[in-house]
From TrEMBL:
Example of a GO cellular component annotation carried by this entry: peroxisome
AMP-dependent synthetase/ligase domain ranges (all copies): 17-193
Annotated compartments: Peroxisome
Main location: other
Gene Ontology biological process terms, A to Z: fatty-acyl-CoA biosynthetic process
Name of the protein described by the UniProt record: AMP-dependent synthetase/ligase domain-containing protein
A Gene Ontology molecular function term of the record: long-chain fatty acid-CoA ligase activity
Similarity comment: Belongs to the ATP-dependent AMP-binding enzyme family.
Keywords of this entry: Peroxisome
Pfam family of the protein (one): AMP-binding_C
Species this protein is from: Photinus pyralis (Common eastern firefly)
Length: 329
């Protein structure tokens, strides 16, 4: 359990969308993203909140058909629903002013496809944060067509600080160097309730919060996520970020969704393995996927662990891939 100041939760929800909206409540109310961005923001602004008992692709179409939705706060699996459902047309986006995705990384290809489907008049944002940051620390603040840096999480929010450190030494590094993102600001939690051991693990001695996310920032101050520390695949001493391979494989015309995990390997230690959801009617083989990756990456990043086709990628309510479940398959 994280301890936050209530007024900070309200202020973050209040700032993002300062007007009345019609918003479907399609995120869990118990999650910090749904609680702040939809529930608290909706109550503050007197918005119309459309509750959805169980979100399915058909239910999403019904919500867009029957309610004049003006803002969507969603996660990547719902973005995928918007993209893959042929019943959802450009006309469904006519009243929508804002789409914000959070909870898990949204790939460049998904962003481009969403822009094509929604049209140029919809503001598409991507936010970054976590329960411990109540929830936002970064946000993309411009439209894709006028300067958004695709694949990034944007700029820091006001009064928020971030730096990149080397996980092993804690040494701070500069722009365009990858390390762990650590944060400081008024929205950072006070700590985990009655869990001092956990507090010592995530807080540095000078009060910075360790996120566990790997990333970097460019010379303009735009931040980019490259992976999770705990998810890195160790291939003969080299570190491979699953998100890099997942973004590449999603670009294959036969792939609908994908997740990459590390599996034990006799000579490599660990090897990247891809679990792939194919588009309906596809006849592609695992070998063709392996060859596609081989043509685009160095040898140690190739899918030495193989490719398995599955019906769906297991994910949490906020769209995070449940990699441990895949490792058990």
């Amino acid at each position: 359990m994280c301890v936050h100041e209530y007024d900070l939760l309200l202020s973050e929800a209040d700032d993002l969308c300062p007007e009345q909206n019609v918003m479907p409540f399609i995120l869990p109310m118990y999650h910090i993203y749904g609680m702040t961005m939809i529930m608290l923001q909706g109550l503050l602004r007197g918005c119309k909140l459309v509750t959805v008992p169980k979100l399915t692709s058909t239910m999403l179409v019904n919500v867009l058909d029957n309610f004049r939705t003006t803002a969507l706060f969603i996660v990547p699996p719902i973005v995928q629903m918007l993209l893959s459902n042929s019943r959802i047309k450009r006309s469904h986006f006519m009243k929508i002013k804002t789409i914000m995705s959070g909870g898990a990384p949204l790939g460049i290809l998904q962003l481009k496809r969403l822009r094509e489907k929604a049209g140029m008049d919809v503001n598409i944002f991507q936010g970054y944060g976590m329960t411990e940051t109540s929830p936002l620390t970064h946000i993309q603040t411009t439209r894709i067509n006028v300067g958004m840096k695709l694949g990034g999480i944007g700029l820091l929010l006001p009064s928020t600080e971030a730096k990149i450190i080397l996980p092993e030494s804690g040494k701070q590094v500069g722009s365009n160097e990858v390390g762990e993102i650590v944060l400081r600001g008024p929205q950072i939690m006070k700590g985990y309730y009655k869990n001092e051991m956990a507090n010592q693990e995530v807080f540095m001695s000078d009060g910075w919060l360790k996120t566990g996310d790997l990333g970097c920032y460019d010379d303009d101050g735009h931040f980019f996520i490259t992976g999770r520390r705990k998810e890195l695949i160790k291939v003969k001493g080299y570190q491979v970020a699953p998100v890099e391979l997942e973004e590449l494989i999603r670009g294959h015309p036969d792939v609908d969704d994908v997740a990459v995990v590390g599996v034990p390997h006799d000579t490599l230690g660990e090897a990247p393995k891809a679990f792939v959801v194919l588009k309906r009617g596809s006849n592609v083989t695992p070998r063709l996927i392996e060859d596609y990756v081989k043509e685009n990456v160095v040898k140690y990043k190739q899918l030495s662990g193989g490719v398995s086709f599955i019906d769906s990628i297991p994910k949490s309510a906020t769209g995070k891939i449940l990699r441990n479940q895949l490792k058990e398959l």
